[in-house]
Design a protein that fits this description.
The chain is α+β, with helices and mostly antiparallel strands and 171 residues long. It folds into two domains: 92 residues, no CATH class; 32 residues, no CATH class. Helices cover 35% and strands 12% of the residues. Helix 2 packs across helix 4. It is flat. The two termini are 47 Å apart. Bound molecules: zinc ion. The site of zinc ion has 8 residues, from helix 3 and helix 4.
Length: 171
């Protein structure tokens, strides 16, 4: 097991991301209590180390200190590793994967039973959000309208059976 030999407190991929954030050119200014103003590439962000937030919202979103936060943490004479979300630590990783997933035999070893096979539940579209289906129907309608317009340009073609109604394919 690779991770068990790993000595850092945070997972390797996360540590790589943190190293990238450490390498950025940001300049933090202490504002008071746990708050900092960080200048970075012509932008200014507010970092709050107590709330673990940054104006760019990246730290809030993914739990890894962003380049602005890393700058503020460094100015505060602390390590960015201390401000990483606990879900990224080596201990959490080991805790999550400590349980064994039992091996499952192949179909040839399955035991036959006298009961009927279990069927999947019957799904109903009633009351569901069908935005993707509505969007797909709209696209098909638009394609149908374009085809109708294109057909109208060439005189004498087709039998005129569509009569302005685009075809809609029901999925
Ligand atoms: Zn930030």
């Amino acid at each position: 097991m690779g991770i068990e030999k790993y000595t850092s407190t945070i997972c390797p991929k996360i540590e790589e991301k943190l190293e990238v954030n450490k390498a950025r050119d940001c300049f933090a200014h202490f504002a008071g209590e746990f708050k900092f103003e960080v200048d970075c590439h012509d932008q200014t962000y507010m970092v709050d180390l107590k709330a673990m937030t940054c104006g760019c919202r990246m730290w809030d979103l993914i739990g890894i200190p962003c380049m602005h936060a890393v700058s503020a943490i460094t100015l505060n004479k602390q390590k960015p590793d201390e401000y990483i979300h606990p879900c990224y630590t080596r201990d959490t990783y080991l805790n999550v994967y400590k349980y064994m997933i039992n091996p499952i035999p192949g179909k040839h070893d399955w035991v036959e039973t006298s009961t009927d096979p279990i069927q999947p539940p019957v799904m109903s579209w009633e009351g569901r959000n069908c935005m993707w289906l509505e969007e797909k129907v709209q696209v098909l309608l638009l394609v149908g309208e374009e085809e109708e317009e294109g057909a109208g340009e060439v005189e004498g073609e087709g039998d005129g059976s569509h009569q302005g109604q685009p075809e809609v394919m029901v999925l």
